[in-house]
Design a protein that fits this description.
The complex is a heterodimer of chains A (114) and B (111). With 114 residues, chain A is mainly beta. Chain A has strands spanning 4-6, 9-13, 18-24, 31-37, 43-50, 55-58, 61-66, 71-76, 85-92, 103-104, 108-113. In chain A, 33% of the residues are buried. The mean pLDDT of chain B is 94. The chains are: A mainly beta (114), B mainly beta (111).
Chain lengths: 114, 111
C-alpha cells in the first residue's frame, strides 16, 4: 500500500476553514511537509514540521501532528478561491548519509467555491 | 535570487529515443533530487545527488540515469523512451535538513 495516504478531494465554501488530512506509515519519519501545486506548475513548499513537534502555525496555516496515530493535518483558515490547488503531504526519513528524501502522497484536490 | 530552474519546459520525443533534462539548483544548495509525476499522481522519487555523489535511488529501471556537476547543476537522462515515461519531471534542491524547493518541471510527452 501507499506510504502516505490522503483523501483525493475536498470542497469548501470561500471563507470557511479547510482541513486536509494525511496518514503516513513510517514512525521514524523526521520531517513532514505540506506542498501546494497549482495547475501546470511545480510544487510550492507551504510548511514543514519536525517530528518532535505537535503543532506549527504560520499565518492562515496550522499543521497538527499526531505521532502516535501517524496523522498529519493542514488547516487553512478563511479559505480563498486562490487556495484552490492540489495539496501534497510528504514524509521523509533521515538516512545514514544525512539526506532526507520526501515520499509524497497522491495529493488532495481542494476546490473552493464562492 | 533565482529559484530552481529546469530546461526545457516542454519536450516531445518518439518512443525509443533518448532525452536529457537539466536542472540548476538554488545558489548554495548542494543537493539535487529528481522526481517523476504522472498525471493524477504524487511525485515519485527517482534520484538524489549531493556533492556529485548519488545519495539515493528510487524504483526506476536502469534506463534512467543522472549526474551532478561541480557547480551542483544536474542532468537526468532517460534512454529507450516508452510511452509510460510521459510525465512531469521535477527537480528539487535543498540544503542539509531543510525543505525541498522544486522547479516548475519539464513536461515530457512520448509519442
Amino acid at each position: 500500500g501507499e506510504d502516505v495516504e490522503q483523501s483525493l478531494f475536498l470542497s469548501v465554501r470561500e471563507g470557511d476553514s479547510s482541513v486536509i488530512n494525511c496518514t503516513y506509515t513510517d514512525s521514524s519519519s523526521t520531517y513532514l511537509y505540506w506542498y501546494k501545486q497549482e495547475p501546470g506548475a511545480g510544487l510550492q513548499l507551504l510548511t514543514y514540521i519536525f517530528s518532535n513537534m505537535d503543532m506549527k502555525q504560520d499565518q492562515r496555516l496550522t499543521v497538527l501532528l499526531n505521532k502516535k496515530d501517524k496523522h498529519l493535518s493542514l488547516r487553512i483558515a478563511d479559505t480563498q478561491t486562490g487556495d484552490s490547488a492540489i495539496y501534497f503531504c510528504a514524509e521523509s526519513i533521515g538516512s545514514a548519509g544525512g539526506s532526507y528524501i520526501p515520499t509524497f502522497g497522491r495529493g488532495t484536490s481542494l476546490i473552493v467555491h464562492p | 535570487d533565482a529559484g530552481v530552474t529546469q530546461s526545457p519546459t516542454h519536450l516531445i520525443k518518439t518512443r525509443g529515443q533518448q532525452v536529457t533534462l537539466r536542472c540548476s539548483p538554488i545558489s548554495g544548495h548542494k543537493s539535487v533530487s529528481w522526481y517523476q509525476q504522472v498525471l493524477g499522481q504524487g511525485p515519485q522519487f527517482i534520484f538524489q545527488y549531493y556533492e556529485k555523489e548519488e545519495r539515493g535511488r528510487g524504483n526506476f529501471p536502469d534506463r534512467f540515469s543522472a549526474r551532478q556537476f561541480p557547480n551542483y547543476s544536474s542532468e537526468l537522462n532517460v534512454n529507450a523512451l516508452l510511452l509510460g515515461d510521459s510525465a512531469l519531471y521535477l527537480c528539487a534542491s535543498s540544503s542539509q535538513g531543510s525543505g525541498y524547493t522544486f522547479g516548475s518541471g519539464t513536461r515530457l510527452t512520448v509519442v
